Amino acid sequence: MKKFALSLCVIGALTTSCSSDDDNSGGGNDVVAPATYQFERNGMTSVSYSGQTTRILMAEELIDALKDPSFSEMQLDAMFNHQEGDIDFSDASLNASDKSIRSKTAASFDFFTSNTTDANAIKADFESWIAEQVADVYSNWANTATPGNPGQLTENGGSVRYVNAKGLELNQAVNKGLIGALMGDQLMNNYISKDLLAQFEATNDSETLVTDKNYTDMEHDWDEAFGYLYGTDDALAPQLNQDSFLNKYLQRVENDPDFTGIAQDIYNAFKLGRAAIVAKNYDVRNEQAEIIREKISEVIAIRAVYYLQSGKLTLGTDNASAFHDLSEGFGFIYSLQFTRKPNTDEAYFTKAEVDAYIAQLMTGNGFWDVTSTMLDDMSDDIAGRFNFTVEEAAPSN
Amino acid sequence: MIKKVVLLICFVGLVIACSSSDDSNGGGNNDNFDRSGLLTNYADNIIVPAITNFQSKVLALNAARENFLNNTNQTNLDLLSDAWLDAYKAWQFVGMYNIGEAESFTSNLNGFRVYYNVYPVSLSLIQSAAAGASYSLDSDAYYAAQGFPALDFLIHGIADGDSIPIDKFTSNSNSQGFIDYLNAVQTQITTRTQSIVNNWQNNFRDEFVNNTSSSATGSISKIINDYINYYERALRANKIGVPAGNFSAGQTFPDKVEAYYKNDVSRELALLSLEAVQRFFNGQSFNGGTTSGESLASYLDYLDNSDLKNDINAQFNASRQQIQTLNTSFSQQVSNDNTKMTMAYDALQAAVVLLKVDMASVFDIQIDFIDNDGD
Asked: Cα Rg for chain B, rounded, in angstroms?
């Protein structure tokens, strides 16, 4: 009995006490999250993430254009690296924006401020996929793809896929790669980073608002993380599947009975973390950040395994379908280097490990040479670092 | 009952545990560290010796200029170049001290450095001034047309229509304009340097040392802000990051290196700047080899953060090693293999987090130049 009480005491002391002098309000951990992600100051919302919505919409137009051979490489590059005022998008508000996809690709505070060398290499990967799409795939749009030759492949169900010489759909590499390199990295490794947010503790403590805004810097940063997941969704009642990126694949994972509840867990962590910032309780905020990192990383890893396993099912019998799955898997595997192991400074997989997987998938004639064993080994590796099994992640048919 | 007692002990424990970090009234450690000793070491053994050394090099530069203009030939231009480089090297040890009189020069985020070292230099401003356009080196429009970069162009660059650098002062149709401009740039450097030195020697030294307050206006907070600002902007960004394309979506700029017209000293200047930064951190005297007094490093030790001190020194050393692998000319390095430049930038950047986040938090110092990205 005594022992039990003492251990409670220790736990209490560990979690509520004085990790730096963060919470001046004198309260313990009594942060209460509101029912929805709704935060106001002086009767007006203090939530803002328009920059994230903008980037998601830019990325939507880019991945659409990557399936339209009328686009030139220059046009696609300009969509990736938009400059304010240039007419790169069909949506005029995107053209007027000073944001770009490229500037936030592999650009998080935690992973890339001191690693611009890798960041440059990653940005170059996206640019090379775009260039190859135009040079090799668009120019062979009507040809039938064969090992070593780009062109089109038709699934048994009728869908036409356009692949490079190794069977890879480069538009999928860009699409799923951005889920890690843009949304995931910014969300997990930038805007909820305790090192980034530490710079804004003083102004958050004093409730100093950003000039002409209704929020503190720290509140806004947290909202920006939120925006990379919910930027095109209803913040108060997320519907999911509202974009082609993280929001969509959170829904896919949520819809797998093995993972039901993950969407609510993530939403709750965002709400409580934001409420903790308002309450100036940075320990609670940091705890929510770790939850978010773990769950978002899981979404990426689960989908990587899902597509490897899904591709395996039709490999050899319906290569168009298999290559389509493997192309999505390729992008999710690429995204693994942007995941974040909770309570560490590391991704679940290093860039070198990811590069090795990519090289393995692309060796020789790429997907044309891939074997079921290779896909299973890779699936086992990935699931092995997470709290889910290959079976749970795999398609359940 | 037992439970209640345990809880009470537990509560008392909490109160005791938390009382050490209770000063939440807006900044500053109220510890018993010898702040006065730290400031005295910085003023008397590091800052004043560095700026008086710089002053002597500036005066030598002035003499070399006079000599060159009295007898304009290549030999004397080379001597002027030597004096310029000597002064430029000495400058690397003073650029961080934007405090006192120097701070009053400008509210620009780069501080008094705007009158000494803004590059790339604007050739059009210099050449139009030489051609007779009116100008004021005190106006912010001319930050990029004075100081060491302007001298770099005047001594080593080739003006439009000329074939060699010295033509500016001989055969160029605006030669008198170039001579006048050279004099004006030198006068600006000399005058401002004299006034900084006088300020420290007359009264600012005591003001600096006596201002031991832990508040944002205390000397420690101010000098640390200046120090990190210098490290982040002048060293990391301007010397390495800007030419390497880290602030321009990957577009590189071989012409935006320090001392571009001399071209083979950018690495040397960067290494000296890093040396100045590290010696300051460890409190090593300007003249005296490794002897050191109270410093940021010893202050970290005092606050039981020797690990952070070691990490910072290790990162400075890693940065030095990385910079030493670069070409003596950063222009060449950027053009030939920019990855090495970004690796040097990354090594320098890694220390920014240690200084600006970790060290500032240990000292409870508010950094006055943080920008959020405004997305």
From this structure: 24
What three-state secondary structure class fits B116? Answer: coil
Q: For A18-48, b where at least 16 C-beta lie within 10 A, e where not — what string?
A: beeebbeeeeeeebebeeebebebeeeebbb
Q: Nearest-CA residue of chain A relative to B250? A: A120
Structure confidence at residue A264 (pLDDT): 98
| A-chain residue closest to B248, CA distance | A103
Q: Is the pTM of this model over 0.90?
A: no
pLDDT score recorded for residue A199: 86
A5/B353 CB distance under 8 A: no
In tens, the pLDDT along A41-95 reads 999 999 999 999 999 999 999 999 999 999 999 999 999 999 999 999 999 999 9
Distance (Å) from the C-alpha of residue A365 to the closest C-alpha of chain B?
30
Q: What's the full length of chain B, in residues?
A: 375
Nearest CB neighbour to B3, from listed A5, A13, A210: A5
Residue-wise pLDDT for B67-90, tens only, equals 999 999 999 999 999 999 999 999
Residue of B nearest to A194 (CA): B357
Kindly list the residues from chain A whose CB atom is less than 8 angstroms away from the CB atom of residue B7.
Answer: 5, 9
| pLDDT for B357 | 86
| pLDDT recorded at residue B366 | 86
> What residues of B are in contact with residue A223 (Cβ under 8 Å)?
none
> Tokens in use for B296?
């940021």
Question: Rounded to an integer, what distance in angstroms lies between the CA atom of residue A111 and that of residue A337?
Answer: 10
**Quick check: B346 contacting A, CB < 8 Å?**
yes
B29-362 fold: A middle domain of Talin 1 (1.20.1420)
What b-and-e string marks burial along B143-175, b requiring 16 or more CB atoms within 10 Å of the CB? bbbbbbbbbbbbbbbebeebeebbebbeebebb
Distance from CA of A263 to the nearest CA of B (A): 25
